[in-house]
Amino acid sequence: MTLKTVWMVGLVLSFATAASAGEAEDMALGKKLFTSQAVPACAVCHTLADAGSEGAIGPVLDELKPSEDQVARALRDGLGQMPSYKNSLTAEQIKVLSKYVAKAAAGK
Fold this sequence. Notes:
The model is unreliable at 6-19 (pLDDT under 50). The relative contact order is 0.16. This protein has a two-stranded antiparallel ribbon with strand order 1-2. α1 crosses α5. It is built from 5 helices and 2 strands. By secondary structure, it is mainly alpha-helical.
């Protein structure tokens, strides 16, 4: 293996590691938003196994398995009894929370 090949492999691996670390941070922040930081907390109404929540008002997200886009739309616009969070969460927080819910509900 040439030095150039070794360097390229190292570069690819470092990007992959950084992406995994960023993904883990996003999932941890999404879980915090779901369980306590969003007001009202999503966990009050929704059941989601990964978050350890057993809400009784909203749908069971593990069964519904919403997409990231569906969650983001519900957070921005509200849905049924669910309030809109567009004035209390930033666009980035909505993105991270949506990603967390979609991945956690899908078991990923």
